[in-house]
Amino acid sequence: MFNSIDRLISFFITASLLFVIIIPCIYAFESSYDINIYDFRNEDFEKVLGYQIDQYQDNVGGFNMIIGNFKIAQSFKPSLTPLVKIDLYGYSINDGKSLEVSIRHDVFGDDLTIISIPSEDIPRQRSWFECDIPDIDVEINETYYLIINQAGNGQFIWYGNQNNDFYPDGYCYSNDENTQNWVNLSKIFENLDFCFKTYSYGDNLPPESPIINGSNTGKIDEDYSYDFYSIDPEGNDVLFKVDWGDNTSTQWFGPFESSELVTISHNWNENGNYVIKVQSKDIYGDKSEWSLFEIAIAKNKFVIKNLFLLKFFENHPFFSFFKNLI
Question: Which of 92, 172, 265, 289 sits between 20 and 30 A of 39, alpha carbons compared?
Fold first, then answer.
């Protein structure tokens, strides 16, 4: 009798201890799990977001300025934060010279963020191109300055519009490296604003990976055409970039309408297997995944390197027949 009572008492004591110890641990584990999930989502939140245009001046009015041994600036007033990306309209004259792009709150102050764009990422013909700066928080409706500096002895041409004041919230400036003085170009060239676009994060979706159609075999030094298109979920226009797999690639070109068929040609000067890669992005800068397409390039001629054999075949009556076969 007493043994049964003792066992029952021991059971209740053990159960009570387990309840006191295990339940708080489970609660603590669940709380920690919730916190970890919350932190993980915060860390990756920006990675799943698209881009949204904030400030821009995209009217090209025939005005351009060559940046040499001085800097040029365009002021603007952001309405969104953070500032995550910039697009410029222009091109570089000389190869091998990088372009420095930075943001300042005071035109005489320090750079808040800066990026050096290598020569191969700067177009050789005037077009829009991307400057993916490190993200910075900005104050809404405060004046900031987009600073362009051509590193080395290169020459970058930045386009703008002087015909109308298409961007009333900003001005253009130039800086002499010797005197460090900034001159308001908008007072010299009335209504002048350079072409630029600033971006923050938004809920825009990237286009789908491009669909590629074309020949998967070919011969050296022959042109082959490839058709491709990309569908944007919101119907935004898209641009394309092609890597031919032979250490050559295109700049971003377009824009084209969503699902519009685009054709481009290329030739390879060595035999081998190549992987063509095509990527699309919409006009807000959100990029698709790369699409891959393989092509095998073979030699298109039989080459006789031995001069003795070549001389023999040239004197042989069947050489012309043999030559036509190859």
Answer: 289
**Distance of alpha carbon 324 from alpha carbon 139, whole angstroms:** 74
Q: What is the dihedral of CA 98, 101, 102, 108, to 10 degrees?
A: 80
All structural domains of the chain with their residue ranges:
2-44, 50-202, 211-298
Token duo for residue 114: 């800066």
CB 314 within 8 A of CB 323: no
* Whether the predicted model's global pTM rises above the 0.70 cut: no
- Provide the pairing of β-strand 291-298 with 217-219: parallel
Backbone angles phi, psi at 17, to 5 degrees: -65, -40
Domain 211-298, second-level architecture? Sandwich (2.60)
| Four-point Cα dihedral 113, 116, 120, 123, nearest 10 | 60
CATH architecture label of 50-202 = Sandwich (2.60)
